[in-house]
Every structure is written in structure tokens, then in C-alpha cells.
Amino acid sequence: IKNGTILRLTTSPAQNAQQLHERIQSSSMDAKLEALKDLASLSRDVTFAQEFINLDGISLLTQMVESGTERYQKLQKIMKPCFGDMLSFTLTAFVELMDHGIVSWDTFSVAFIKKIASFVNKSGMDISILQRSLAILESMVLNSHDLYQKVAQEITIGQLIPHLQGTDQEIQTYTIAVINALFLKAPDERRQEMANILAQKQLRSIILTHVIRAQRAINNEMAHQLYVLQVLTFNLLEDRMMTKMDPQDQAQRDIIFELRRIAFDAESEPNNSSGSMEKRKSMYTRDYKKLGFINHVNPAMDFTQTPPGMLALDNMLYFAKHHQDAYIRIVLENSSREDKHECPFGRSSIELTKMLCEILKVGELPSETCNDFHPMFFTHDRSFEEFFCICIQLLNKTWKEMRATSEDFNKVMQVVKEQVMRALTTKPSSLDQFKCKLQNLSYTEILKIRQSERMNQEDFQSRPILELKEKIQPEILELIKQQRLNRLVEGTCFRKLNCRRRQDKFWYCRLSPNHKVLHYGDLEESPQGEVPHDSLQDKLPVADIKAVVTGKDCPHMKEKGALKQNKEVLELAFSILYDSNCQLNFIAPDKHEYCIWTDGLNALLGKDMMSELTRNDLDTLLSMEIKLRLLDLENIQIPDAPPPIPKEPSNYDFVYDCN
User: Fold this and answer.
1) Could you tell me the keywords of this UniProt record (predicted)?
2) How many separate helices (H) and strands (E) can be counted in the chain?
3) Architecture of domain 472-616
4) What does the angle CA 96 – CA 97 – CA 103 come to, to the nearest 5 degrees?
């Protein structure tokens, strides 16, 4: 009990649970409503939840939901608000109780699923009931394979779409979360079919109109769900990306013939007589060379590397068919150039497709914490192909600006990657805006940016300066160490990751001002301002810490579950090991906090601070300190070796005593 607080005696969780269990079965509507209201607020407490669940409370709630509508059908007309509130409190209590992870999701009946699905499918449903129902459906799909199949039968994308067209952002968020969950858990063979249904129902344009371009800010949770949808959509390309071309497959070879036909159609086709067979072969070889393939005789061999596999060929065909003028111009422009300055269209397309897949992380699972979605990808049904078409034209333009030859291929690809990455960070709202950003990021502009960055991080390599650096480094490291420890004293709020992100639970950890103890404790919500010391009940003496482990070595990352395979969560995880088999597990809110905490804990244990942030801070501070110390030497050449010591003078007559 905190010092100075008033000790209030209240009923125990077991007694509370027993009383509420009886009260929610009361025949009086008012008493029942009051009991359900209390249950909804008390269910957040894990001790109470455990006691209530032990009394078989969950099955009582599910029975109430299943039978509720029939039983109160007559009363509904007279007491509609009361009925709506009762159902809302019942579902809220159910969501809170299930969120503790005590009961398995697999135990629910089809009747219960149908009832929850009916609340979602019915129009004009109370907002709070709809919100809880969507949350329950999402959790069912994510936590149980059997329930995924049952929910998928009960609910269709068509029934979810109307909820996106409303104005309540929270309902829209829950709806997209359910669609994402169905998408994520769908078997591989069903995913493409589901994507086709989403396209048919115009999900993308509905999200663009009612969510992205709605006249209100997008909150973090909505941004996260849009990011997940973006990742899952791009992951549909993984199958083509990992498929090698079969040189014997006629249909696939016909695509290459089609690329050749569109580019060189103007030239007269030779007759199909046997005499012209050789001539035709040599002409094809010449055309494939003009198209920029590495293997002129059999271009199919160029598509046997995965990634990008067949995805590169799909992109090339899309560009040739939908942007025909640009395609013909690029191919003919390069085939008429001198050999050494031509930009090979085939090779460029294959490498560019691979690079774009890396940038968009095609094939990787969505992160639990990221909300980095790009509005422009929601503006077109074939956004990846259109993205490729813009970038292949950029590559050709950059190639000309750099006056590159085939030896410079990798340099050109690096510049193009930088141009694309810089344009994406500005989050253009449409593909046209993205194109405009790229227009402004010409090769000359990239050179200027690189030059200014180089100037800022100027690295002095002469020996005297390196010696000066070595001399200054320990005091700068000490400065960084103090900053890290001061940040640990301020403390950080960490999120407890559970299966449903929206039910966020927080805990806070901070170092005592004397650097001897770590104080930590649970919080109800994300703190605004400073957290009082007495609210952090638990403590861990620094002297008891045995080790700090990160990433895959953390105990909470070895547990089974979705987090285990999530790369980004792995990168933010660290644990403090103390006593025998005890640990304190963390998942940092972002990379910056992760570096601060791992550095600070290592500093407390007398180990080196190894994080990327420390390296960057050290470079920046060293560079600034050296520049400050060398200010007086502006425009003076610093010699590599110290000047020679002059010979001793023949006499010391010039020495005189000031006294």
C-alpha cells in the first residue's frame, strides 16, 4: 500500500464474481442492466476475470447473447435502448474477459458465431454493439483456425463494405481489421480468390474515398490497419516473384515474343518458309539484344533467377501493353544508340523489379507496430505495375543523365534506389504526385544532396586529426553514457503486446536517480506527463542484473505465437535476466528507445554501448568537436607529420630574466 493513501476495504474478487454471477441472472431488467454494467468495468482486472471464469461465467455470457434476441424480441419495441445497452455491456464484458487469454477461443459454438455475425450483417445496429462484434470476429479469426473457417462462412466482404462507408473511424478501423484477419488467415490457394472479391467489391476505391481522402486525420490504429492491408496485397505478388520461368513453356515464351512484336512491329515480318528459318533466328537474336536481354539466344534464361522470377516479365508485359508509346520509345532509343551507352531494357526491368520488391518488403509478414502505409498505392487497382512503369522510365532518364555504360549498371541502380526511397518518404498522395517528386530528384539533385551530406559528415583522415579524435573519444563516450542514464532516469512507457492491439495495456520502467534500482509497474493508460514514483510498485536492484539479452535470445521471443516470426518486433525486443530464471521482458516502442535502453543497461553493467545510435551520436559529436577545435586553422593546410625540431642555438644570450 502506497505511503499516505487511504486503505479502503472492499469485497474480494471471488465474492464480487459470485455476486455478479447471480445478479446478471436476475429477472428484473434494471438489476440485470446494472449488473452487466459493473461486469463490463470489472472484467478488465485479471484477478476478477479468473474468478468469474472459474464460475463458468463465459458460457453464461454466450448463452445470454445466443438467447437474448429471442427472449427480448417482444420487449425490444418498448425497451429498445435498454436492450441495446444490455447487449453492449454483455459483449464488452465478453471481450475484456477473453482478452486475458485464460480461455481458448476454440470452445465457442456455431450458434454464438452466427449470432455475432448477425449483429455485423444487420444494418442500423447500435455503434457499440457493432464495434464489439467486429472485435470478437477479428479475435476469433486470428486465434483459431477452426473459427476462421466458421466465421468465413458466416460473413462476406460484401456485408462488411457498408461499414466502411460510414463516418465513424473506429468502426471503419475494426472493419478493415476483420478483412485483414480473414486475408491473413486464408489458405494460400484462397488468398488470390479473396483478392479478386475485394477488387470486385471495389474495396480499394471505397477506402480511398471514405478513409484516406475523408476530411479527418487518420489515427495510428487506422494507419496500422491500412499498412497491414497494403502489405498483404503486395504479398500476393510473392508467388510470381518466386516462380522461375520454364524455358520449355510455350505460353511463357509467347510473352517474350509479344514484347518483341510490340517493339519492332513496324519492321516487316519475314515469310515463314523453311529457307528463312536461319534468317528469322538471327533476326530474333538481334531483336532480343536490342531489347536488352543478357541471353540473346534464349531470353527465357534471364527469368530463372528468383526473386524476381516471372514477376519481372509480368511487369514488362504490363508496361508494353498499357504504356506502349513509352515502351517503344525506350527500346528504340536504346537500340539506335552506340553500344556502350545503351540502357538494357530487359536487364534493367529484372533488376528494378527485384529492387522494388525489396523496398516494399514483398513476402514479409506485416509488423505488429508499423503504421507506414502509402496513400498512392490505394489510388490504382494495379498499383505495383504502375509503380514499376514510373520507375523504369526514371531508370532510363537517370541512365542518360549519368551518361552511363554497361559497366556503370550497379551505380545507376543505386542512384535510382535513392531517388525512389527519397520520393516515397514524402508520402505522395497519388502516383502522379510521386512522378512529380521524381522529376525534381534528378541525378544532379541527388549529387547535390550527397555532396551536402558528405560535407556535413566530413571525415578528416590525416594523422594529427586521427590522434586528436582518439584523445577526445573517451570524454564523448562518457557524455553519451550520461545522456543514456539520464534518459533511463526519466523512464519510458512500454506496451504489453497481446493478440489484439487496440486493447493496449501499458507498463512503465525507470531508473532511480542514484542508478541503483529499476522501478516498474503497470499503468491504466499511456501517461501524459511525469509518472509519480509511488505508482511504480515493483523494483529490481541493478546489482541483481545478470545479463541483458536482445532479439531471438529473449525468453518472450522464444514462446510460440505470431510475435515469434515477426522480424520488426524481434528487432525491438530485449530482456533483463536476474536471479535464477527470472526475467523482465521489454518490447521498445521504437528503434530509438530500444537503443537508449540497451545502451543504458549495458553502461550500468560496465559493458560497451554497441548500438547504432551510439555510433551515430559518437560520429556526430566527434565531428562537431573536431570542427570547433580546428576553427582557428581555417584554410591552413595541416601537415601529415609534425614539423622538425630546430637545432639548439649556439648560445643562450637572448634569454633574460624579467625580474
Assistant:
1) Apoptosis, Cytoplasm, Membrane, Phagocytosis, Phosphoprotein, SH3-binding
2) 29, 7
3) Roll (2.30)
4) 140
Taking alpha carbons only, the member of 53, 74, 154 closest to residue 111 is 154
Q: Is 630 left (phi over 0), alpha (psi -120 to 50) or beta?
A: alpha
Q: Could you read off the pLDDT of 606-618 as tens digits, one per residue?
A: 999 989 999 999 9
Tens digit of each residue's pLDDT (9 = 90 or more) over 234-262: 998 998 898 888 888 888 888 888 888 88
* Stated pTM of the model: 0.74
The answer to whether 173 and 225 are in contact (CB under 8 A) is: yes
Are 346 and 292 within 8 A, CB to CB?
yes
Sequence spans of domains, the chain: 1-77, 104-217, 250-265+277-453, 472-616
Give Dmax over CA atoms of the chain in angstroms.
Answer: 122
- The three-class DSSP label of residue 586 is strand
The grid coordinates listed for 70 are 429471442
Rounded (5°) CA angle 553-555-557: 75
Q: Is 388 helix (H, G, I), strand (E, B) or coil?
A: helix
Listed in sequence order, the residues at least 6 apart from 561 whose beta carbon sits closer than 8 Å to its beta carbon are none
pLDDT in tens, 414-473: 999 999 999 999 999 999 999 999 998 888 888 888 887 766 555 466 677 788 888 999
* CA atoms of 379 and 226, how far apart (whole Å): 13
- Neighbouring CB atoms inside 10 A of 185's CB total 20
The CB density around residue 322, as the number of other CB atoms within 10 Å, is 13
What is the rounded distance in angstroms from the CA atom of residue 648 to the CA atom of residue 630? 30
pLDDT digits (tens, 9 = 90+) for 382-419: 999 999 999 999 999 999 898 888 888 899 999 999 99
CA atoms of 83 and 490, how far apart (whole Å): 48
Nearest alpha carbon to residue 136 among 604, 323, 658, 150: 150
